[in-house]
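Example 3.2
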Amino acid sequence: MNGQSIRAATVGAIALGAIAIAHAQQPAAPAQNVDVGKSEYDAHCAQCHGLNGKGHGPYVPMLKAGTVLPDLTTLAKNNNGVFPVQHIVETIDGRVPVGAHGPRDMPIWGQFYKAQSPGVNPDYNPDAFARVKILFLTEYIYRLQAK
């Protein structure tokens, strides 16, 4: 390599380094407001519980005969004004049996979220990922409560 080639390579390396440093120092673009709880509800719950949470989604006719879904907007009202967070979390993750969801050994949403975790990021802990998704969903159901 002659002197001119070495200088060109050095200048190129410095330029690339400067570009990388400048790019790294730029403020990140502001995150868009994403309502994770609503998104999860709309994607996984509204088919049965309805967009408004009153239990009249389009899949209701396909459920077992006689299945009546709860009005999710009255959970706190029906629990002496206290939103039953733990019960909701356990219902969603599968620890509380729900006839329409299947037997106790088939916790649909807890298992679904755990299975989804590696596809989002293989470094995520599947249990923690599922818990976070369920908490977002629980918080959204809290927001559905009738005032």
